[in-house]
Amino acid sequence: MENTIELLKEAEVPLFWPIFSRVLTTQFPGYAPEVIHYFLNTIYTPPVYQYWINTTAKFVLVARDQQTGIIGFALIDRPYGGVSLCRWLGVLPGYQRQGIGSKLIQEWEKQAGQQGAHKLEVAAQPQANDFYAKCGLKLEGKRQLSYFGIDQYIYGKVIGQPDPKLMVKS
Fold this sequence. Notes:
This protein is an alpha+beta fold.
């Protein structure tokens, strides 16, 4: 079966959020359990996702399996200063290493370019370093004991030329 990558709609947040919660809980071992609890109960709640989608402050790409439903996602900020930041990217364990994460990144690049971004950026945990490198993002640096006490590896990819008119467009 073919997997598709689509923008998450507000009405689909109740279907998406359990997948996000499961992936965050099982696929991001760098975070302490208290931090994951804080994320899921304070910052990344269903009403917050609905707000982001309604205000277009962020967008969510979802990978769908025709039979299973949502199997992966990417939470992405709208470009700021020409840079599109991916906050979270995850794929359910049974669907990893099948090109789904790569498809999410390809669609992120497409969407970011349409929104006027000239660069993609993501802060990765160590276990994702090879994945981002294979997807064409370059390691730009390391933040030691950064946000919420984890080391973050900063990856980026230039996808266009900076355009001041687009960078200041509201």
